[in-house]
Design goal:
The protein is mostly beta strands. About 5% of the residues lie in helices and about 55% in strands. It has four helices and 45 strands. It has a 24-stranded antiparallel beta barrel. Strands 1, 3, 6, 7, 8, 9, 12, 13 and 14 form a nine-stranded mixed β-sheet that branches. Strands 2-4-5-11-10 form a five-stranded mixed β-sheet, with no helix packed on it. The longest helix is centred in the C-terminal third of the chain and has 10 residues. The protein starts with a helix and ends with a helix.
């Protein structure tokens, strides 16, 4: 979700008992039986002579001040037997200056926009938020007071925006199937309206939001007047069909046809079932793979829609890393000394998956996710006679996540979460359980949070471990502070369905910061913080990670973002992970560094991001430094282009390269990393877009000195090791896509993708030759066409009746 909406999220809270609560604003809606055309005209008679929500108040930067008269905003609400309608007139003294960039769905771009926040239970806990830009772009989010906004949530609704001689008009139709509310004859909903004047960077709400209190959802107004509506049957079917044409310089082109079905079913007014049958993730974004020479795996973003949409409740306690589902596992595979694996699968097919999620009127959130992956084989070859055989690398596997999250007092919660991986046969099984808490006092000044997690692994050797944490913060006013601590036992392991790199340690950390709550003569926003972090290896109590840092973030009066920071580590750190051998460590010396960033106002057609950074190891000729430069240009409301260049230099970096008998081999090396990327979009309309994404990544690691790691963590030169462990890695990805939302919830997409990657041990610092070599017999091509059609049971029922 874009930064414009993220800026709306504040700390969740309730009013202090010493604060006199203001009477909530109220708007009364009127029922209509007239057909309302969603055309941005508001010319039906039903819009006449009904209650108006007006007198908006500044949210930021001048919190609490009335909206200027020239930006007057008027909102009306109607309802029918199947939907709620919103009509908004947004006045502007210069309609020609209204920003209205066309972008994809769920993106705001550089646009003015209007939003409505709806809480059918009026409990201050969960809101469904719907935004429309001046270019008629749609954005929808699911907001909870504990987790903020979930921008992956999508609903099916209608909107229209029209520029006028007085400003612009927004008209919306939100079916009840997109909302949650109790079965009552008379409804009272929590409601708020939001507006941003983008060129002024001014944000306003109808019901005032006090930024010293936060808790936007608990400061909403009231919507009354809705009577005798019924909760609709929420059954949606999304069949899809895809065709893939793939080939490469060395493989014959082949075609493949796929089809499947997604199902969404509202079990009741609070809970929803999502299921995918015969999944197809062929059009997901590519992964930004890097040259990874460290001891830990690279973590990738989740790009598969099923695992990103509406999954906020499953992310409690950081126990779920959904990329594990369908990822080839690193299991114990027994092969003979004269055998080698010649064909190892890159991924495992997902057979089906379902999830149940929601939150009832009593604040109980329930999440249940289950996925099954198929049995997968690899090919093993006998090195003596070239005979091959099949070996099972992943059995039929069931992945499960269960969550119960009980909210109380509107701003506190207790959560139970369990993740389980069960593999067929004698393979490894894993179970992880967590009990979490997030407690706030009535004034929302103090927060106490944390939890206890335990893991149980059934493998050749069974193991059990624990992970405990506690965090205390004062989070009101200009001065704020926090401190906390973690303890992770040696055998804590949640890596079958989660991701965790470090164990067997305890840590303590704190933070103190100062911020302005309203603009001053220089800054619109300003924050400075001081923080420290210490992590200790439990068996020896040695420091394995530490840092002191100071950070500044601000926005000036022209809405340019800039900031920077300094970091200092005055202690030797004992790295127990880089050696790849238990209880061995490498001593990292003291270091210091800093960074700076500048991001010019994206409202301007031309903008640039600039971020240099450096860290220097004290008393050694060893450092790492880099710079990111990213200019962008918006040619018009339809076409924009962003280029990004990142260069990262590591001089005399030290790291593991090999294990020879009992000797751990380290190298002192120079590393250079270049990343060039281009993203561009051309939008024909708010529902039809072309997108281009290109990334070229090139990384070199040249070993200058070979060393043997000593038992005291120091290094001794090694003159006998001669194996070439240099690295030259390059990768290329290009995605060119066309997307057309031809009906609500229904989409056709066309994607052309090519990619290539090379890796060798020869250091060649000539960019041109490395780049050209990347495309010699390495380029893979895929052209795919996918059509998804959204079927609402209620509409289909009417079609059948008419038929």
């Amino acid at each position: 979700m874009t930064n414009s909406i993220k800026l709306l999220i504040f700390s969740f809270t309730v009013f202090s008992t010493c604060v006199v609560a203001q009477q909530k604003k109220t708007i009364t809606t009127t029922k209509t039986k007239e057909f309302i055309s969603i055309d941005g005209e508001l010319n039906e008679k039903s819009w006449e002579n009904i209650d108006i929500a007006t007198n908006f108040v500044s949210l930021e930067p001048k919190n609490g001040t009335p909206i200027p008269e020239e930006f007057k905003t008027e909102v009306k609400v109607l309802y029918s037997d199947d939907a709620i309608y919103i009509g908004a007139k947004l006045y502007d003294p210069n309609p020609s200056q209204i920003l209205k960039e066309l972008v994809e769905r769920d993106e705001i771009g550089t646009s003015d926009f209007f939003g409505i926040f709806i809480n059918g239970y009026n409990d201050g806990q969960q809101e469904f938020r719907f935004f429309v830009t001046a270019a008629n772009g749609q954005i929808d989010t699911n907001f909870t007071s504990s987790d903020g906004e979930d921008g992956s949530w999508n609903a099916i609704w209608e909107s229209n925006a029209k520029i006028t001689d007085f400003g612009y008009v927004i008209e919306m139709k939100i079916p009840y199937a997109a909302l949650r509310f109790p079965e009552q004859d008379k409804q009272t909903w929590g409601i708020n309206f939001f507006r941003e004047v983008r060129r002024e960077r001014q944000k306003y709400t109808w019901s005032p939001i006090d930024n010293k209190i936060g808790a936007i959802s608990q400061q909403a107004g009231l919507l009354t007047g809705i009577e005798n509506i019924k909760t609709p049957t929420r059954l949606f079917l999304i069949p899809y069909s895809s065709f893939y044409l793939s080939g490469s310089d060395t493989k014959k082109t082949k075609g493949e046809l796929k089809g499947g079905l997604d199902i969404k079913y509202g079990i009741n007014d609070a809970f929803t079932l999502d299921a995918i049958l015969v999944p197809d993730f062929g059009q997901t974004k590519f992964d930004n793979v890097v040259l990874n020479l460290g001891p830990f795996e690279q973590q990738f973003n989740e790009n598969r829609p099923f695992f990103t949409e509406g999954t906020d409740i499953f992310n409690k306690g950081n126990l779920l890393y959904s990329r594990r589902i369908g990822q080839t596992p690193d299991l114990n595979i027994n092969i003979a000394e004269n055998e080698s694996i010649i064909n190892y699968p890159g991924a495992i097919n997902l057979l089906n998956a379902l999830k149940i999620s929601g939150r009832d009127k009593d604040g109980l959130g329930i999440g249940f996710l289950n996925a099954i992956t198929e049995k997968t084989m690899a090919t093993v070859s006998n090195d003596d006679n070239d005979e091959t055989r099949q070996i099972e690398v992943s059995p039929l596997t069931n992945y499960n996540v269960t969550v119960f999250d009980q909210r109380f007092n509107q701003n506190s919660s207790v959560t139970f979460i369990n993740t389980n991986v069960t593999r067929n046969g004698s393979f490894r099984d894993a179970n992880v359980t967590g009990l979490l808490f997030d407690l706030n006092d009535k004034s929302n000044k103090y927060n106490l949070s944390g939890g206890l997690k335990s893991s149980s692994i059934n493998d050749t050797e069974n193991s059990n471990g624990i992970n405990a944490s506690v965090y205390l913060a004062e989070k009101n006013g200009k001065f704020r502070y926090s401190f906390g601590g973690d303890y992770v036992s040696k055998d804590f392991d949640n890596n079958d369905l989660g991701i965790n790199f470090r164990t067997n340690y305890y840590s303590v950390y704190n933070d103190a910061n100062y911020r302005i709550l309203n603009p001053n003569s220089i800054f619109n926003t300003f924050r400075i913080s001081l923080a420290s972090y210490f992590e200790f290896y439990k068996p020896t109590n040695q420091i394995q990670s530490s840092n002191f840092n100071m950070n500044l973030n601000s926005t000036n009066k022209k809405n340019h973002y800039f900031g920077g920071g300094l970091n200092f580590n005055p202690f030797k750190n004992y790295n127990y992970y880089e050696p790849r051998v238990a209880d061995r460590y490498f001593v990292n010396p003291e270091n210091a560094g800093g960074y700076f960033y500048f991001s010019s106002n994206y409202n301007n057609k031309f903008a640039v991001d600039f971020n240099p950074y450096i860290t220097h190891v004290l008393n050694e000729n060893r450092y790492e430094a880099g710079v990111n430069i990213s200019p962008r240009y918006r040619f018009n409301d339809k076409f924009s282009l962003v280029y990004s260049f990142d260069y990262f230099k590591q001089k005399n970096d030290i790291g593991f390269i090999d294990l020879v008998n009992d000797d751990i081999i380290f190298a002192r090396r120079d590393r250079d990393t270049y990343t060039n990327s281009i993203t561009s979009k051309f939008s024909i309309s708010s529902v039809m877009n072309f997108n281009l994404s290109v990334r070229h990544y090139w990384a070199l690691a040249e070993n200058n000195q070979i060393n043997t790691l000593n038992t005291d963590g120091s290094l001794t030169p090694n003159y006998t090791y001669t194996t070439n462990k240099n690295s030259n890695f390059s990768t290329w990805n290009l995605d060119l896509s066309y997307s057309w939302w031809f009906a609500p919830g229904s989409q056709m997409s066309v994607l052309y993708r090519n990619n290539a990657a090379t890796f060798d041990r020869t250091i060649n610092k000539n960019f041109n030759s490395n780049f050209s070599n990347l495309f010699e017999d390495n380029l893979n091509h895929v052209l795919s066409i996918s059509v998804r059609y959204f079927i609402d049971y209620n509409q289909a029922k009417n079609w059948i009746r008419k038929g």
